[in-house]
Amino acid sequence: MIHPFAVNGDGHLTIGSLDTVELTKKYGTPLFVYDVDKIRENARAFVDTFKERGIQAQVAYASKAFSSIAMIQVAKQENLSLDVVSQGELYTALQANFPVEKIHMHGNNKSLDEISMAVEYNIGCIVVDNFYEIDLLAHVLKEQKKEMDVLIRVSPGIEAHTHDYILTGNEDSKFGFDLTNGQAEEAVRKLMTFDEIHVKGLHCHIGSQIFETDGFTMAIERLFHTLKDWADRFDFKSDVLNVGGGFGIKYTENDEPLPLSTYVTALIDKISEQVKEKEMVFPEIWIEPGRSIVGDAGLTLYSIGSVKEIPNVRKYVSVDGGMTDNLRPALYNAKYDAVIANNVNGKEKEEISLAGKCCESGDMLIWDIELPKVNQNDIVAVFSTGAYGYSMSNHYNRFPKAAVVFVEDGQDRLVIKRESFKDMIQNDLSYE
Ligand SMILES: Cc1ncc(COP(=O)(O)O)c(C=O)c1O
Ligand SMILES: N[C@@H](CCCC[NH3+])C(=O)O
Question: How far apart are CA 384 and CA 273, in angstroms?
Fold first, then answer.
């Protein structure tokens, strides 16, 4: 079983020492529950490693992994910076009173409205992704008579080992300027012509759920190759190097993630090596972890409903959620681990497949998992759903969105209310 979960005397799964079965009685299912201590522990693993090495750094929580007012407030308490990719994520951060100067905005198609809002609220930095955006940004800055720090997102041509859909640093990518075909240089030269725009450095993000450090260190080498070239040819200085997020976490026993501090150490060592070799100034290092801060701190609790046994084929056990609260299995064939929360150590086991309740054959949460024999109304806990679970949840089949509870210091606290049917239809207008 995956940290930080344990089992109490009743054989019930606990999270942050609270009985998950009791939580479902109080809040219903499906229910996301986060152990806030674990979120803090993950955040500190990054922050403290930089501190111990005396490195100037910003650890920006990639709020796309799970954005809510309470979560942004935890990020603020942990002195993280924040990565947002939309007006919605920015709005949430503003509502959480997150310090604006520590907000960075991403996006491969930032709209005029998004850029205007970012400039209006004086966020810390915009990560420029394409030529279209440069013109929009210059226009908005002139109009609002403001200045803005920017990073240039480049794709370093790295094929990280992960699912194709979550690969982002390769040449054939919708994100960023290509380093090798001259577009990145063209972008930086163009950005440097605007007095209102201050180019602070480069950004790259090679992908997500990555278990090795090689992809990151190779990317750093390529970035430094470029930085040295630009420094020699047109005196370009990179005060900041943002190497993105993407650090892998444990979903099942087959995943062997590195300790989070190992990623940071590898990044620092490689950057130190390159700085020395190329005789350059040590940049401030920024990273953008999302999944590795919240992923393994969260789980989802479901109630079991129908059970369909097809003799000699399979036993389908259906729960009261599915691809509406966890799209990842359907989208990436992502694998998860689970237990029966009210009978974790049950001796009599059977192999089942855990199905969601959407009208899609592909709405399966886990294929072929061995669990204690299940009964209707048992509670299933699916682990490591803290990242890209709630944030990618949707209204397919008009299922209302689940509730989210934070657990800390032996207390549970509702941080996102369960949607009502009324909430769900609030924007529907009558045609009668
Ligand atoms: C630019 C950028 N930064 C950070 C992240 C966060 O990645 P992860 O949640 O894998 O740490 C992503 C998502 O892949 C991203 O696209
Ligand atoms: N949503 C993806 C990762 C993409 C992250 C953003 N670039 C996941 O669930 O794994």
Answer: 35
